[in-house]
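lol forgot to send this yesterday, sorry. struct tokens for the thing we talked abt
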């Protein structure tokens, strides 16, 4: 929790909330955003073609809070989670918040439709982001935090998702992020410089938050807050849920280990995303970053032993 004597961050925050058939938990999610301790918080929503009553919930909140809740209307239909976020991010760059003191930055937060935000989530993240920027709003910057895992009824599964999943959040470098994303989008807060640099999100991006993490790692600043700031609800309809870290496996034979290729699919996706990133940003990458992206692009196709060799090399870059 933040100290009551701490000066509130001098900023506004626009929360991007993509919605698709989320009526069950949507009102609770919106309420937890509206009840943030930070004063100037706004919500920009987009419905991705829901067939339940999600749009009715959005319209109700827009009517109740016309200054704070905004709904993006278009005829683009169902774009999926990544496409929905991309549309909202593009719209965020043109958003002008009402009643915000001149000179205050507008930061961007990402939200799921089924979680519960702790009341000081945005205040904590905004303080860290302003410290990370150090007065330089032109450099892409992103902060992200831990999550508390809960059941759909709010009962605790684990106090820390990072420890539950064994995430190596201490490896924020570009090469490490090519292999594994440690940014959970719904905990993140970023400046507009990151959005401008990241858009458009490439079709080969695995997820929007992974793409943002790569851009921040390559061209800006990233910081992790070792504190749970939301209750991350686990239920059957989750697009992406939390999976417990596997226990160590004892292989029955050396041949099994050599030819085991259980990770082929994720290596394929890693490789395609890395090639897309290199295609988009190649001339701007340092030699070390370009090498890492090229090696990651080779993860698709070769036998499992070569994939694991490339993986180990990338982990050391």
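and heres what i got for the seq, position by position
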């Amino acid at each position: 929790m933040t100290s009551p004597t701490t000066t509130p961050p001098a900023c506004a925050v626009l929360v991007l909330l993509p919605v698709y058939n989320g009526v069950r938990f949507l009102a609770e999610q919106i309420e937890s955003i509206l009840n943030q301790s930070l004063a100037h918080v706004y919500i920009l929503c987009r419905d991705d073609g829901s067939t339940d009553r999600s749009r009715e919930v959005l319209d109700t909140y827009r009517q109740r809070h016309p200054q704070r809740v905004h709904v993006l209307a278009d005829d683009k239909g169902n774009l999926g989670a990544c496409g929905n976020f991309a549309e909202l991010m593009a719209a965020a760059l043109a958003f002008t918040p009402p009643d915000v003191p001149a000179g205050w930055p507008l930061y961007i937060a990402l939200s799921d439709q089924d979680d519960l935000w702790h009341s000081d989530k945005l205040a904590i993240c905004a303080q860290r982001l302003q410290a990370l920027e150090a007065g330089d709003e032109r450099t892409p910057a992103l902060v992200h935090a831990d999550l508390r895992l809960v059941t759909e009824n709010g009962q605790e599964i684990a106090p820390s998702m990072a420890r539950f999943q064994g995430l190596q959040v201490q490896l924020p470098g570009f090469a490490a992020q090519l292999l594994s994303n440690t940014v959970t989008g719904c905990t993140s807060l970023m400046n507009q410089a990151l959005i401008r640099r990241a858009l458009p999100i490439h079709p080969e991006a695995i997820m929007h938050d992974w793409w943002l993490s790569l851009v921040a790692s390559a061209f800006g600043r990233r910081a992790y807050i070792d504190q749970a700031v939301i209750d991350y609800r686990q239920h059957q309809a989750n697009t992406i849920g939390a999976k417990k870290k596997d226990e160590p496996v004892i292989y029955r034979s050396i041949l099994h280990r050599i030819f085991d290729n259980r990770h082929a699919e994720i290596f394929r996706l890693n490789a395609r995303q890395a090639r897309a990133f290199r295609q988009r940003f190649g001339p701007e990458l340092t030699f070390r970053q370009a090498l890492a992206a090229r090696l990651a692009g080779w993860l698709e196709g070769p036998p499992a032993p070569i994939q694991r060799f490339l993986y180990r090399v990338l982990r050391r870059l």
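The chain is about 40% helix and 15% strand. anyway ping me if u want another try
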